[in-house]
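The passage that follows is intended for readers who have already worked through the single-chain material. We present the inputs for a multi-component assembly, then the predicted structure in tokenized form, and finally a short commentary. You are encouraged to pause after the input and sketch how you expect the pieces to fit together before reading on.
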Amino acid sequence: MPEKFTPRDRARTQTMAEIVAIARRQLLEQGAAALSLRAVARELGVVSSAIYRYVPSRDDLLTLLVVDGYTRLAEAVDAAVLAHREKHGVSDPMAEFKTLGHAVRTWGLRDPATYGLLFGTPVPGYEAPAERTNAPGTRVVLRLAEVLTMAWIDGAAVLPEGSPLPDVLRSELDSLAQEFAAPPQADHMAMLFHVWAALFGLVSFEVFGQFGALNKPVAEALFDNGLLSIAAMAGLK
Amino acid sequence: MPEKFTPRDRARTQTMAEIVAIARRQLLEQGAAALSLRAVARELGVVSSAIYRYVPSRDDLLTLLVVDGYTRLAEAVDAAVLAHREKHGVSDPMAEFKTLGHAVRTWGLRDPATYGLLFGTPVPGYEAPAERTNAPGTRVVLRLAEVLTMAWIDGAAVLPEGSPLPDVLRSELDSLAQEFAAPPQADHMAMLFHVWAALFGLVSFEVFGQFGALNKPVAEALFDNGLLSIAAMAGLK
DNA sequence: TGTACATCAGTGAACGCGCGTTCACTGATGTAC
DNA sequence: TGTACATCAGTGAACGCGCGTTCACTGATGTAC
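Having made your guess, compare it with the prediction:
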């Protein structure tokens, strides 16, 4: 049974895409809490009730934006990392890590509202449905895990030794490690978390304006230097 | 000219405090964007226009909350660090750093809404007035700077060497270092930033629920382990 | 100490606004025979 | 290929709601003489 796409079908998917695009722009201009179906309808050039043909509720529109945001971020990151591999091979994990980090930062600065929706203050009264959100939401950590794991496995990075993990934590991380395919030990999982959090901490401070006014080249150099320190924390040189 | 406090004066300061407390609770329940003067007035048991005797506008109420939040956080951090010094003397910078970190985390988890107001997505359309916000907003970094600097100076911590900072960054950080009294070099300033960002990245992920559901002892152990890694990044052992 | 006036907290009505969502409807597009 | 029916996008009116802010007011509290 070959699927047929009628003009109506095509119009529908196009309208859906337009709705998401409009919502994204409004998010950027006024924040998640101010996102309104009526405003989207208005900009779409359609009466306010018509929007319900496409989106069942305001919360659903938010979910659409969340999924779209995670996906775009992951695609930006993947594209950057894979392009780097294309060019230089897989031999330089430090460069890959920096590429990944800069991709996150660039994306966040370009679309701070969506970045905030994904990594900032939760929207009050809204909880993203895990079954739609988990898969796209974990793509970046998984890529990060891949980069670090390859380095740890082939010896390009050596985890600095610290005090051993407490047992509760160790067992929890060991079972979590299964899902991540690669990192061999709980210590690696813990470090992965810390690197992840530190990276997004750096980006969040800049995107949310916590640093105050730094001019662009300075901010960029500071971030780059931060990536070096974080990499060193993970034993990457 | 001795100041007299009439009953009216006392009533006023008390009402002001009550307004801030109510606003803080509403922030917690519904988020910054939903904070409304009318709702505060309602809960205060007063007609909606009466609130204007105390707060000139909604934005001003937000500023009050921001200042109050920074101040309470700084006081929690200072109290924890100073209590630690009281007990153990000043000789253990690693313990002081961990104390500081845990104080930030505990405070953030206890009042996630205010934490989000200070360190999360900016409230759309609102910009905190720097002249009221800067002083309380920098207290925690300054304390962090103090802890790290003491360690760097007396040799308890040694900054790992990395590639030299680019010139733009170095000169910017050198001039910034003046304001911070202590860290002798631009490299220290850069590391201070990274530690600061990494610490708040860790806390933000947990407060904002990015980690998903971890039970309490696990989350705590993971955080504690993260602090160790961050400290190591700064050369603290 | 007592009185006249000024200050201030709180009232109640009103303004104009935008929101999410429902509903019965019209007319165009698609489908089955 | 032509017709009858079903599906769907979009309309327009309406619902009940909460918001920030202004204004003229009343009555209690504070201050100066």
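Commentary: Chain A touches chain B through 52 residues (CB under 8 Å). Residues 6-8, 36-39, 48-49, 52, 57-58 of chain A lie near DNA strand C (CB under 10 Å from a C1'). How closely did your sketch match?
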